[in-house]
Model the fold of this input.
Amino acid sequence: MKLFVALTTALLGGYLFQLIHIPIPWLLGPMIAVFIGSNMFKERYAWPTPIRNAGLIIVGYTIGLSMTATALHEMAIQLPSMLLMTLLLMLLCVLLAYFISKLSRINFKTALLGSIPGGLTQMVILAEETEGINLTIVTVLQVIRLMMIVISVPLLVFSPIMGNQHTVETLIQSVTTATASWGALTPNIFIFAVVSISCALLGNKIKFPTAFLLGPAFSTAIIQLLGLHGPALPTSLINAAQIMIGIQVGLMLKPAQLNNKIQIISLAIGSSLVLLLGSFGLSFIFMQLHDISKSTALLSLAPGGMDQMGIIAHEINANLSVVVGYQLFRTFFIFFAIPPLLRMFFKYSATKKIIRNSPS
Done:
């Protein structure tokens, strides 16, 4: 029953957002509708993680289709730029965490784990393992940032500032031409489906980062490099995947669990806006380094989830390989480099505090 309530709310939200011409309505509509509904009517909503994971597999497959030999070569060429942009974005996050800790009673470690973008799962796990971290605040800061970015980036991308003044009808036509009918999926889709699902499950078993997204993406890319063509997915299936993901994101934010709700939510929203503005500024530097569009640059650097940015890039026909390449690099950097660096920093801070407090 709870699953039915969540799905019905999501469908109503998606339909409403499509009716009023909001960008990517089947991601944002379910996310906002379920967030509102689940906080108004507590304990009446549920959404199994396997369904969300199925949506991630679909999005991962779509991302994998864009990772051609040409795209991978372009990513290799831009590797120095990827590292530079990622480091600049991380520096901005550290500064934001410092100001959040100074403007509130949140300790710096909690603010820092809540401010690092693109690694919600990893940061929450790290927060659970680190002494002196407020897990609820980390989750709320991360989820509000994600929601702010996912809502703001599409509106910015579709604004005259970015040069994308498509009507919804034009957008639907462009997406339809880039996708396929159900009949065109066979027979290759069966091979890609089996391999994608298997790699997602295997990756999850060995604790591979965001396995349900990256497993299908990598496996699809490899199969295509071996010469087997991957069919494009129908629009209805892509919309279904967005609903599966959007419901889960909407359920993650529970402001009722917070003390000083107004202060923390205000700081989360304010820091998210600053991070978005910082990403917007970095996108202009990115454009000077490489010949790409404003939309591609912003989506590549936007501190949101790779799946959401990939969906938006697909919808507006941005350079999906560049967007995914930069988002993928930052994801790996955050998953593999940030946790050990943070552990070293926290250990150093704790040791320094002990030395400072010890009697001389």
Q: What stands out?
A: Residues 166-179 have pLDDT under 50 and may be disordered. The longest helix spans residues 320-357. The radius of gyration is 20 Å.
